[in-house]
UniProtKB/TrEMBL annotation:
Organism of this sequence: Candidatus Avoscillospira stercoripullorum
Name assigned to this protein: Hydrolase
Molecular functions per Gene Ontology: hydrolase activity
Annotated keywords: Hydrolase
Keyword Hydrolase: yes
Length: 51
């Protein structure tokens, strides 16, 4: 089996799979990155929406 990192985008993950990877490792966004998005929306007066 081939285990590979997929990269930061959906397209790069698809390309890695197309290149023959059997498994993809993925690092989720940090809690700081998630909170930054939440606070940006809060500061603009927009409601919180889960993705």
């Amino acid at each position: 089996p081939i285990i590979a990192t997929g990269g930061p985008t959906d397209d790069s993950i698809a390309a890695t799979i197309a290149a023959g990877a059997n498994a993809i490792t993925w690092t989720p966004p940090s809690s700081a990155d998630i909170f930054r998005g939440i606070m940006d929306r809060y500061r603009r007066g927009l409601p919180y929406e889960e993705e």
